[in-house]
Queue: 3 jobs
Job 1
Amino acid sequence: MMHLINSKVLALLSALMLGGLFCYIFQSYSQQYEQPSILHGRTDVVTVTPWLAPVVWEGTFNPVLLDSIYKVKNITVTATVFAVGKYIMFLKNFLETAEQHFFVGFKVHIYVFTDRSNEVPQVRMATGRQLTVRSVPSSKRWQEISARRMELIQTLIEEQLPNHNDYIFCLDVDSKFHGRWGSESLGALVAVTHPGYYRDPRSRFPYERRPASKAYMASGEGDFYYCGGAFGGLLQEVHHLAKTCRSNFEADTQEGIEAAWQEESHLNRYMWINKPSKVLSPEYLWQDFKPKNPEVHIIRFSGVVKNYAEIRPNT
């Protein structure tokens, strides 16, 4: 009987302690950010799509709040980057700036695909962050390098990334980070609006217009024009995207067709049919050669200025 009473007392004390701890955490947590408002916010840009997906701009989210939500989930964020041929020259800058801005404070695993493993730079990474190099064959055509990315991403997820609760972002190596890219970008399927076309009507989007192609977009179709250089989401969602785009690309190849912008064309077709659950503004992949537009308050990630004739094998 005494043992039973002691067990009940211990259980009660444990419950009281846990309750007190919860109240303390909740009180601290609730004091970390100001009360949200549904009446005031950005009015110069659209912050939600017609299918109710958030469009992420500076000033539309609270980073402290979002980090506190996702850090307790113990997620790992994977990033893939392809440094094939002379593109290896951009890798050091990419990795160093990622350490400063990409999911700081989270577990991050960067996979570098390259045909020049001995030239991968040594970059010191913070605790909880790691780098894995995977060798890939070189190519005489940059279009082939671009096209193979979907296949390699699909294979990576199938063979190395079994936890479907984690996230992956597929990013261009000839880019660098300038500001925070963090938990505000997480979603089931995430696309980035292209900085060159986000102000244009869809009639000007460089979609694949040949009906014979699996990437075909008819006149009047399309929501936004999305970047091939930055996309992501949950592992199972990105796996389905990569597998579908790879299959469609191979079907085109069988018919002797190469889509206008290779994987980017197939990506845009996929996102038209499978709407992204979150859309990132052009802050998340700007172009260094163009001035910042007024609605872009911060550049988080950008493609660097380069001479394509020097770095692309068949340009």
Note: Confidence is low (pLDDT under 50) at residues 20-31.
Job 2
Amino acid sequence: MAKIRVSYEYSEAEDKSIRLGLFLIACGILSLFILGFCWLSPTLQSLQSKPANCTVVSVLRPEEMFECVFTCGTDCKGTSLYPCLQIFVNNSESNSVALLHFDEQQLVLNPKCSFVPLCERDNQKNKDNVLLWEDYFTKEVSGQSFTCFFNQQRRPDDVLWHRSHDTTVLLHCVLWPMVSLLLGTLIVLLTVCARSLAVRAEALQKRKCSYEVCQDLSLPSERLDAKVADDLLTTNSDPEPELSSPTRTLPLFAVPIRRRDREH
């Protein structure tokens, strides 16, 4: 029997689904790298800081001024000044005095000051925002214990009032890239499996059709052989023809008998 060939080419819909799956896989891998570089690493570093109890020791406002960048429109940018506020607290973890910062972003932005206000175009507004925090820590928080975050390995002389990142950020950085990656892989696998099953079904159908055609082609020859066999059996079983048969020939030395002799 000749070898049955089937087509392994994908249809247009299957080709689109495979492209969609590969696109989702690429997006998952790329977003995992981008989010891991931009968010995952800072989040892990932020989660390494341990909670501790802090108490305000002193609140200082040096004469030094720092610049900040403000925006007043699409193409409008400028710099303004704000005073530096330094809040020193006693850290229960290390039992030492450390400089308090609002969060990790402000610590990186200005490690010398405890608070960096939202930059305004007017310098007086920046100063008023800093004075509000100074009054808050001087009058309301002074003498009270509050929760702060301390990292002995990275910054032993600094503590944080709030964390910029928590476990929710870590969950989103890992969850959505993995969902995209798994969804793309599932689409590709389902498309390939569906095509493989279709190819097998096509091969079985062609094999079945070819088998039925061979049976139909062999049927007339079998009937012909049976008819020939029946004819041979009929010829061998026929009795000898009667003498009165008009086609029978007389013997070579036969003598004809007259009718008159037959009457006597």
Note: The first strand starts at residue 50 and ends at 60.
Job 3
Amino acid sequence: MAAWGERLAGVRGVLLDISGVLYDGGEDGGSPIPGSVEAVARLKRSRLKVRFCTNESQKSRGNLVGLLRHLGFDISEGEVTAPAPAASLILKERGLRPHLLVHDGVRSEFDQNDTSNPNCVVIADAGEAFSYQNMNKAFQVLMELENPVLISLGKGRYYKETSGLMLDVGAYTKALEYACGVEAEVVGKPSPEYFRSALKEMAVEAHEAVMIGDDIVGDVGGAQSCGMRALQVRTGKFRPSDERHPEVKADGYVDNLAQAVDLLLQHADK
């Protein structure tokens, strides 16, 4: 692998995943990953542009930012690219009326969308709402449509909370895809459109940006497919086997966000 100076030279913008990189969630709100609060502060004091790019779909963007600020992070709502607000805009643009299989915490993001007589299904990380009854209702809505549309807010396999690994929305999306014979449209990582929207907000070209995440496929693979560089942290959902993934290899592996920021501030301007 090339030296860090070669791998990080010319970086102008940094995209940060949130869960598993900044903090681990939990029933008590979660806790910051050691060193991450100061690492974000150091990045924001630097000349690098910073944007937070998350697949969080259990909390509204406002509630997520409120939690992160409570944990000590310097972050504003306008700095966060999240799938629920993006999906709401897509629904409006396409005249889609969603049946929502989502967590109550994110339902407010769809307050401006017409949900009567649904002509699509939006699925997110619904947590305890992933009951047979609710999954079956979403299945029935899709099967009754001549041209079924399934929109998934991400397709992660699992994520990490303070209590351990948790099953993510991707598994439930796959179940509906299989049962209904449809392919979900993904709003969120690893969708190329999602990464491009974050880059546009930063006014940075893909080759000038690096993604820092804990998901080898969604964060690293998704970013690299858009022409970005990507580092994987060994926190959050990281598993040692990620470093031997058969299809995706990060541009570098770091112990945590603090180490990633050390390297970026040392090499990015060169």
Note: DSSP finds nine helices and 14 strands in the chain.
